């Protein structure tokens, strides 16, 4: 079946315009004529092989997505099959991907613009992880950002559920080379810490304007994630933010943050501090212009976080920042997360992906 504009799917969903196409499927903007609302429609391509294998993967994506309800995860409305083609009917949110944002900026992103995106993504990932679902392909192209700053995680096409039969074979490499965790690059099982590593790469790219590793081939890039030390972030990046992103990028999963909720909390604290600093700087400039204070203002003491312990958190300042690793959800409301490139992505195999980007 060839999909065309105006075609009606399941006698209900009209195909309006193709948004993207990759090796495994295509995504359309559509319209639900029964409920009168726009939808996103993801459909398998029929002009490629391994159709049954792709159907199994799309069904798994539907099951995994159906178990997730969170403001920062694109909602699944329905799954439908006809003539060997599977269709995911999903929430449509007018937005750009974070990859589009990075390309548009063409360099480092303002941390106060990047942090809300990272925080919301971490909150969405925590909910997925708490349902036993590992995304396995966290990258800017799968993080959608609306005009009002709302984030939606998309494309659970290669996600892994601890509660379902495994689809990928042991030793199979799944993910996108530029953002893949060291353990995934070695064909090991992905864990929540694998997604945290990938989010760390996303953060690194946003803060630097480029990814930590490049290479001539996807294999070269993946090998760098395994073997090469992460280049340090520039000193222009806030020291606490710099050290925490590097903490997310630890080679050993056990040396990374305990969960994605901890990531959201720490990044939120850093964001609040940076906002306070920005407010103080603006107030200081205004007062200087008014002549109400001397031009020289005492700065706060500098704290060196260069010797962060991976497990013990013995440095007092870092202990204050990170707090108890077993912290239970407190004032953070996961269901109301309204906190304010370079080259092409290389993907391992058509079986390990839904879209090229």
TrEMBL record:
The answer to whether keyword Zinc-finger applies is no
PROSITE patterns to which the protein is assigned, alphabetical: PROTEIN_KINASE_DOM (PS50011), PROTEIN_KINASE_ST (PS00108)
The answer to whether the entry has keyword Glycoprotein is no
Q: Which domain of life is it from?
A: Bacteria
One Pfam family for this entry, by name?
A: Pkinase
Which ranges carry the Protein kinase domain? 13-275
Alphabetical list of CDD domains matching this protein:
STKc_PknB_like
- PANTHER family according to UniProt: MITOGEN-ACTIVATED PROTEIN KINASE KINASE KINASE 20-RELATED, SERINE_THREONINE-PROTEIN KINASE NEKL-3
User: What is the protein name stated in its UniProt record?
Assistant: non-specific serine/threonine protein kinase
Query: Origin organism of this chain?
Result: Bifidobacterium gallicum DSM 20093 = LMG 11596
């Amino acid at each position: 079946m060839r999909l065309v504009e105006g075609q009606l799917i399941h006698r209900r969903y009209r195909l309006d315009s193709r948004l993207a196409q990759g090796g495994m499927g295509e995504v359309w903007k559509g319209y639900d004529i029964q409920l009168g609302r726009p939808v996103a429609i993801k459909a398998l391509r029929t002009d490629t092989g391994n159709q049954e294998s792709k159907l199994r993967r799309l069904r798994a994506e539907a099951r995994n997505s159906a178990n997730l309800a969170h403001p920062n995860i694109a909602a699944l409305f329905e799954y439908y099959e006809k003539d060997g083609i599977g269709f995911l009917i999903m929430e449509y949110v007018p937005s750009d991907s974070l990859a589009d944002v990075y390309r548009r900026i063409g360099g480092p992103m303002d941390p106060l613009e990047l942090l809300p995106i990272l925080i919301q993504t971490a909150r969405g990932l925590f909910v997925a992880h708490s349902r036993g679902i590992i995304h396995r392909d966290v990258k800017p192209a799968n993080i959608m950002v609306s005009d009002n700053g709302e984030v939606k995680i998309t494309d659970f096409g290669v996600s892994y559920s601890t509660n379902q039969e495994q689809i990928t074979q042991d030793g199979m490499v799944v993910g996108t080379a530029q953002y893949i965790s060291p353990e995934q690059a070695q064909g090991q099982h992905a864990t929540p810490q694998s997604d945290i590593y990938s989010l760390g790469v996303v953060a690194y790219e946003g803060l630097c304007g480029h990814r930590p590793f490049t290479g001539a081939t996807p294999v070269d890039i993946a090998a760098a994630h395994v073997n090469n030390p992460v280049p340090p972030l520039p000193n222009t990046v806030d020291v606490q933010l710099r050290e925490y992103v590097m903490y997310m990028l630890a080679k050993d999963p056990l040396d990374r943050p305990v969960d994605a909720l901890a990531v959201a909390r720490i990044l939120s604290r850093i964001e609040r501090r940076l906002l306070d600093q920005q407010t103080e700087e603006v107030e200081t400039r205004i007062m200087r212009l008014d002549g109400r204070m001397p031009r020289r203002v005492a700065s706060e003491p500098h704290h060196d976080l260069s010797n962060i312990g991976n497990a013990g958190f013995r440095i007092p300042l870092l202990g204050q920042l990170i707090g108890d690793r077993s912290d239970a959800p407190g004032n953070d409301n996961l269901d109301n997360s309204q906190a304010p490139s370079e080259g092409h992505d290389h993907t391992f195999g058509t079986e390990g992906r839904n879209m090229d980007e």
